[in-house]
Amino acid sequence: MDYLLYFALLLIIPLWAQFRVKRTYKKYSKVPAMRGMTGAEVAQLILQQNGIYDVSVQETKGFLSDHYNPGNKTVNLSSQIYHGRSIAGTAVAAHEVGHAMQDAEDYAFLRFRHSLIPLANLGSNFAYILILIGFFSSLTGLIWLGIAFMAFAVLFQFVTLPVEFNASSRAMDQVVSLGVVQNDEERSAKKVLNAAALTYVAAAVVAVMELLRLILLARSSD
């Protein structure tokens, strides 16, 4: 029964976070921004006002596929955000530019997260394989090696939190100081950003829960 509850939580937590994001985005994507700027225009304005001229703004495919790519210095906005003139589009575009600002300032947590990517990928791809082989072959050392790999993936999730929260904070500072959002729009933009942040918090919580479960299983097999 305990295991059923545990796996139910693993499923429900991220689904709930995704539901909140989609519901909030859908609501505020229908609310036009008073300035009438597209997401692309908002992104360009913030970049220019902060003296960042080596980053381009591009349109990308997919739903809420918006991201900043430090490799080729691009802010990639989904079509709805790139062309949209909504509060949601303004908030999301500003958030991604927040990452470009972090990159330009050599923000420590962003650099640390990038350095963790190879180890996090190893953890995501091979941790469970090593753990399963270890359990079936009764090789405790292999189990703990898999758990160590998974720990890097969990660490990556946690380092992502300050990176994302800081990007949202920068986004709000910029859209307010530049007059991109006005009056009650500021509160609405914050709701969009807070809903998006929930997905990262949920991912971190689920990752820690699974890591702790595996540690307990490994200890019981010693």
Which features does this protein show?
222 residues; mainly alpha; three-stranded mixed beta sheet; 7 helices; 6% strand; Zn_peptidase_2; Zn-dependent protease
Short note summarizing the structure:
Keywords: Membrane, Transmembrane, Transmembrane helix. With 222 residues, the protein is mostly helical. It has one domain.
Report what the structure shows.
The chain has one domain. The longest helix has 38 residues, at 140-177. 35% of the residues are buried. With 222 residues, the protein is mainly α. It contains seven helices and three strands. β2 (67-69) and β3 form a beta hairpin. Strands 1-3-2 form a three-stranded mixed sheet. It is elongated, with a radius of gyration of 20 Å. Helices cover 75% and strands 6% of the residues. The model has no long low-confidence stretch (mean pLDDT 93). InterPro entries: Zn_peptidase_2 (IPR007395). The chain crosses the membrane at residues 6-21, 116-136, 142-163, 192-216. This is Zn-dependent protease. Keywords: Membrane, Transmembrane, Transmembrane helix. It holds the Pfam family Zn_peptidase_2.
